[in-house]
Amino acid sequence: MQPSRTPPVPPIHLQSLALLVIDMQRDFCSPGGYADNAGLDVGSLAQPIAQIERLLAAARHLGVMVVHTREGHKPDLSDCPPEKLARSVRGGAPIGSQGPLGRLLIRGEYGHDFVDALQPLPGEWVIDKPGYGAFYSTALESGLRARGIRQLVLCGVTTEVCVHSTLREAVDRGYACSVVADATAASEAALQEPALAMVGVEGGIFGRVCSTEDILAQWHGQDMGQAQGSTP
């Protein structure tokens, strides 16, 4: 991605910011889960875990709102569209079929839950979503509005599907968005850079792409500024 296409860093206010950790589940990031059964490289999908740990630690320290999303379906598959189910069959990992981590992408199964390193803390919001985007058929938007959230930082998997779907939904709803490049991963390595490049075109049509270091520096800088501003 060309630096000239990178939009300027918008001013931030930590109280109006949320970190969205998208679908860091065993079904996508662990051997034996949905992605593994579909023939995807779960080692690559697990790579963002360390960077997301850093983002979570900073968010928790600074009081930034944290939202974890999980993709999955009811045990009777009543919320799984027939075409999505058919596509999963064609892909070799039928949703609801039995795997080493339980039924694939079914709520309540071991594989549906988050990887150990990224388990939510008590009080952090978990959004169970039946679609790729986190706003579809969930209470995410109303919850963010109630908290006065206007800016979102997105990380997780997969960059080209659930991260992008959520990003586009968020932009259409008026949120300022940042995608953390090294805290995301695509289902295929060749898709990562094109998916990120789409974000910054036309002056940042879908927001900006940044690194974990960028985000941490910005957050801590804002926190220092607020602390100094409150000093008598």
Automatic annotation (TrEMBL):
Residues 18-213 form the Isochorismatase-like domain. Pfam families: Isochorismatase (PF00857). The keyword Aminoacyl-tRNA synthetase does not apply. The keyword Ribonucleoprotein does not apply. GO terms for molecular function: hydrolase activity. Keywords: Hydrolase. SUPFAM superfamilies: Isochorismatase-like hydrolases. Gene3D superfamilies: Isochorismatase-like. This is Cysteine hydrolase.
